[in-house]
Amino acid sequence: MFFANLITTCTHLFYSLVWLRPDLIKGGVRDVIRVGVAARSLELLVLSWVLYGYDISWNFLGIKMTFIIAGQILNLAVYDQLGLEGVYYGSQFRDLPIIKSFPYTVCSNPQYVGCILTYYGILLFYPCQEVLMISLYGILWYMATTEIEKIPKIKMS
């Protein structure tokens, strides 16, 4: 569980660094995409490792899948609207168009809400203390990231 939370922490700290100090990322958005994809893949691998061996609760399957599917619809819609560069803070390195259609008509942070819904759906499949702690930790980081993004970004020269 510690390893899973450590990876989540490192991932969000990296994104916070990109948001607050994009000038430190020498390769620009390409490096951010590489690190982002690698970090998400590692998170998925560690989560799979943590969940291996736990009994899955199939009760209320429809409700659980609704959370996961709704979360993934929001995430995929963000990727569709912003592309990889927009999702991985490409706006820190150059101007990107402002999106005013779905999923931003549903909420102001659809990618984070989608991730939280997905975390919650997974949590419901594995009703045990370890998964609860990992899920809550991940959800708290998404909430913290939302607050970090309210901090004005520095201007690139």
Summarize the topology.
Elements: H1 2-20, H2 29-51, H3 61-87, H4 110-125, H5 129-148
Helix pairs in contact: 1-2, 1-5, 3-4, 4-5
Describe it.
- The structure is a single chain.
- This protein has 157 residues and is mainly α.
- It contains 5 helices and no strands.
- Helix 3 packs antiparallel against helix 4 and helix 4 runs antiparallel to helix 5.
- The longest helix has 27 residues.
- The model has no long low-confidence stretch (mean pLDDT 81).
Secondary-structure class: mainly alpha
- State Rg: 16 Å
The overall average pLDDT, rounded, is 81
Number of helices: 5
Strand fraction equals under 5%
Total number of β-strand segments?
0
Listing every helix as H and every strand as E from the N terminus to the C terminus, the arrangement reads HHHHH
Shape from CA axes? globular
Fraction in helix: 55-70%
Catalogue the unreliable spans: none
Largest sheet: number of strands, sense, barrel closure: none
How far is the N terminus from the C terminus? 41 Å
Brief summary:
By secondary structure, this protein is mainly alpha-helical. It has 5 helices and no strands. The protein has helices at residues 2-20, 29-51, 61-87, 110-125, 129-148.
Please tag this protein with its features.
0% strand, 67% helix, 5 helices, single chain, mainly alpha, globular, 157 residues
